[in-house]
Structure formats: C-alpha cells, structure tokens
C-alpha cells in the first residue's frame, strides 16, 4: 500500500513538473513613443550673490537686492504661487595667503513664467534689480502629464506593431500582452530648438530673434511580451 502511494505521488509530481515547464509561445518587443510640443511656460532660477568683508553688511546688501527683485517680479504680475525662494546662504571664505576672512551671501529665487511674452522684459529687469547669476532656464509644458500619457500609449502601439511585423511571415497572430515593462527614464523633456521671432524691431527695422524657444520632446519606452496565437 505504501509502495502504491509512493508510486502515485511520483506520477503526480512528474505531471505537475511537466505542466510547470510547458512553454507558452510568445514574442518580446520594445516600443518607443515620442510627443513633440511647443512649451507654454519657462522656469527661471536666478541668484543674487554679494561678497564683502563684513558678514552683517554682506547679508544686508544681499537682502536689499533680493527685496528689489521680488518687488519687480510682483510688478510684472507674476502670481505669488509661481515664484519662491529656493536657497539662502551666508558663508565665510578664508584666504590663507592674505590670512583674511571674507563673506559670500546668496539668495536664489525660482520663477515660473506662464506668459512667454514677458520673458525678455523679466530677464532684463531681474538683472537691473540685482540678479547677477542666472543658474537655469528651462522651457516646459503645463500639460506634461497629459503628453507623457500620450507618449506611453504610442510606445505600446509601437511595440505591438513590431510584434505583428515579425510574426506576419509565420502565419501567426499576436495575442494578449502578458507582461509590460516601463523602461522610460526620469529625465526632463529634451528641447528641440528652433528660432522664435520677437515682436521688437532693431534700428534697421528688421525683426530680432531673441529667443530660441523650440519644442520639447517627451519620450516613453516599453518592453512588452505578447502571446502568439
């Protein structure tokens, strides 16, 4: 009886193992989706930097300049929700040759400009009010999440189209997807530059091109495994 039970157990295990290793015909492909759009806003990171020998004076001068900068930003009718202080610092700098300590104060403000027609006037005014370092200027889309979704859908369609190309000569069909892997990298959208003409005219009456606003390219990549019917 024990031998019979052992024999049946071995048969059951063998059948189970056979079922587990049964291969399902499938095809694996990669897909890429790209969406190019014109940006409708710009994010500017600008810094006031002040140096001097007295920490109190350096901080005071830096504060006064930043106060003028913030007042100018408000004057440009930038909503308060669209600009904020990102960094404030006051650091001693020791000169070993002269054996003296100086001080360096910085304040950085980040501004999101949703009306690109204000860009030139804003940048010029920032410098006039005391900004002496533009750290970053990034053109963006306010509908980034929507375009990322579109890019992902295009990537899936691309993967399925490739799979259909491969199996079409085999007399088979692409069935359901069994795995989908998102391979998209978390990077800012890549700019694709092109010139944008400014409204202003130079002395000769010709229009100036002051801003290369271009397009931004939003990319999604996926890997998909399809069952073959």
From TrEMBL:
Transmembrane segments: none
Signal peptide: none
A family per Pfam: SIMPL
InterPro entries found in the cross-reference section: 26kDa_periplasmic_antigen, SIMPL/DUF541
GO process annotations (BP): DNA damage response
Coiled-coil intervals: none
PANTHER family: PERIPLASMIC IMMUNOGENIC PROTEIN, SLR1258 PROTEIN
Protein's UniProt name: DUF541 domain-containing protein
